[in-house]
Amino acid sequence: MQKPKTYFIHTFGCQSNKSDSERIAGDYQARGYTEAESWQSCDELIVNTCAIRQRAEDRARGFMYNVVTHFSELGLKRPKIILTGCMTHYGNTKLYEMMPQVDEILPINEVGFNSAAIRKDKKHAWVPISTGCNSFCTFCIVPYSRGREQSRSFDEIMNEVKDLVWRGFTEITLLGMNVNSWGLEKVGIGFRKLMMERESFTRSDLPDNQSQYLKPKETPPFVKLLQAISAFEEIKMIRFMTSNPWDFHDELIEEIGRNKKIDRYVHLPVQSGSNDVLYRMNRGYTRERYVEIVKKLRAVDSEIVIGTDIIVGFPGETEEEFQETVKLAEEVSWLIGFVAMYSPRPGTASWRIYPDDIPHKVKKQRWDLLDELINKRNLSTRPIVV
Ligand code: SF4
Description:
The chain is α/β, with parallel strands linked by helices. It has two domains: 6-110, Rossmann fold (3-Layer(aba) Sandwich); 124-381, tm_1862 like domain (pyruvate-formate lyase- activating enzyme). The protein contains 13 helices and 13 strands. The strands form four sheets. Strands 2-1-3-4-5 form a five-stranded parallel sheet, sandwiched between helices. α8 packs parallel to α10 and α11 (319-332) packs parallel to α13 (360-376). The longest helix is centred in the N-terminal third of the chain and has 21 residues, at 54-74. The chain starts with 5 loop residues before the first strand and ends in a 10-residue tail after the last helix. Iron/sulfur cluster (SF4) binds at residues 133, 135-137, 140, 142-143, 177-178, 244. Iron/sulfur cluster is lined by residues 133, 135-137, 140, 142-143, 177-178, 244.
């Protein structure tokens, strides 16, 4: 009998990529492949890439270079290398040019929800509820790499949850680029068309993020989904990521307050404490609105802790604008802050309309300061001001 072919998946990046890899594994196993112990011993190597920052891309390229070198030094036939993930936004021609080691490209949207996930964890499961993103923050590559936002149907999600309950899972993390907008009615915009058609445009030509969906007239669909999943007695913990401030409805805050199965840690990316920078980023909220959400969350349960993402050195970020973020850090006392130095991603709006004009040295100083303030001095133990 012929030995079954083997695959190995090397994943870079966020939880969405890890969740996609679980489904890629499902697809391979459905086709009769078995998982190899390492990339050194597989027939097909799937590299699931991240493009959020230049460093993430460099790591994927470095990894593939090491794989090819390893096999050529040993004089062995190397595995077939299949690239997927966020770097696919470059398009096939450019990718084959950039990485001649790649044998095949698997478009990220073809991973989809169709394959059953192969999970290593027996207690906790990632469950994607949407793919893509409609928000177009100017710095972000996701809407180009993952395409338009598509909500998975309620029935499909619930069937997967029922199956997880049956298998003994007790913790679920719902995944999406903007989970709060799950199931909302789209307004529809021509952002991508505008990006493609125009040689040049300015920030004021871009539609605002908060205009992407009709405001829900009744309980937001995402809240109903949380309630339906919580109804399973066997499910003890529900987490979700990522939430964005512009769709963080009051009913969601109330639900978090009363539904103790929802994790008390809320991840709420702010990106900047300056309204002018937020506008340039097209984030669809103000510093004041962010603080209002934080206050409301803490009012429904004082145990709630908040984490965030921040970009320093965004184009044009003045010292005063940066200090607004520092002040916000002191005001909010985040439990944790994932601070990143801005790196222009080819193809994004910010890459097209703003020069990357903050010197690396300044970005690094700002990064150090915020990291120290939020993560090292553990502000979260201080009295909460807001
Ligand atoms: S909400 Fe903004 S930052 Fe998040 S994935 Fe969409 S475009 Fe990117």
